[in-house]
Amino acid sequence: MSEERSRSVSPTVVIGAILAIALAVFVFQNSHEVPVEVFFWEFEGPLWLVLLVTILVALVMIELIGSLWRARRRR
């Protein structure tokens, strides 16, 4: 039994590999520069990085709003 287990591939490893490949494809397909304007800042960056930063900012904002809502609800 231990011999079979050592030769089998974990589903977590398979899912991780699929996600890594999908991420690599996404980055290579979205590597062209795009202009970004936020208030008075203007810069250019690769599309994949702009999307990643946007997603991270959105996640942080969702977490902050959720924690404020939970704190207010406790009162």
Automatic annotation (TrEMBL):
Superkingdom: Bacteria
Every copy of the Lipopolysaccharide assembly protein A domain together lies at 29-74
Q: One GO term of the cellular component aspect?
A: plasma membrane
- Membrane-spanning regions, if any? 12-28, 48-69
Keyword list, A-Z:
Cell membrane, Membrane, Transmembrane, Transmembrane helix
Question: What residue stretch is flagged as signal peptide?
Answer: none
What is the recorded name of this protein?
A: DUF1049 domain-containing protein
Organism the protein comes from: Actinomarinicola tropica
